[in-house]
Amino acid sequence: MYAIIKTGGKQYTVAVGDKLRVESLAGEVGSQIELTQVLAIKDDAGMKVGAPTIEGAAVKATIVANGRHEKVRIFKFRRRKHSIKSAGHRQNYTELKIDEISA
C-alpha cells in the first residue's frame, strides 16, 4: 500500500515505514503530524484517485529530525567585466517517518 501526498508544494510517494525529507514543518521532534492532502492511494482493492484530494484520507507521520540540507553554491561570473558574485543557500527540512496511511 502506498499513497501520493502533497506538502510544501511538492508531491511524494510514501509507504508505511518510509523516511523522507520535506520542506520545513512546524512541530517538535517526536511529535506526530497528520498530512491531509492525499492525492491518491493504491492498495489491494485498487487505485483511488482524488479530484484533487481524497476526502477523509490522511497520512500520519512522526517528526524524526529538523535540519538543514547541504549548502548550494551560487557563483556568477561576468567575463571581461571584473565582476564576480558568490553566495550560498541552505534549505531547512523536516525528516518524517510514515506511520499509517488511512483512507
From TrEMBL:
GO MF terms, alphabetically ordered: rRNA binding; structural constituent of ribosome
Cellular component terms per the entry's GO annotation: cytoplasm; ribonucleoprotein complex; ribosome
UniProt cross-references to InterPro entries, sorted A to Z: bL21-like, bL21-like_sf, Ribosomal_bL21, Ribosomal_bL21_CS
A Pfam family annotated for this UniProt entry: Ribosomal_L21p
UniProtKB keywords: Ribonucleoprotein, Ribosomal protein, RNA-binding, rRNA-binding
GO biological process assignments: translation
Function text: This protein binds to 23S rRNA in the presence of protein L20.
Quaternary state and interactors: Part of the 50S ribosomal subunit. Contacts protein L20.
Family statement: Belongs to the bacterial ribosomal protein bL21 family.
Protein name: Large ribosomal subunit protein bL21
Organism: Turicimonas muris
Phylogenetic lineage: Bacteria, Pseudomonadati, Pseudomonadota, Betaproteobacteria, Burkholderiales
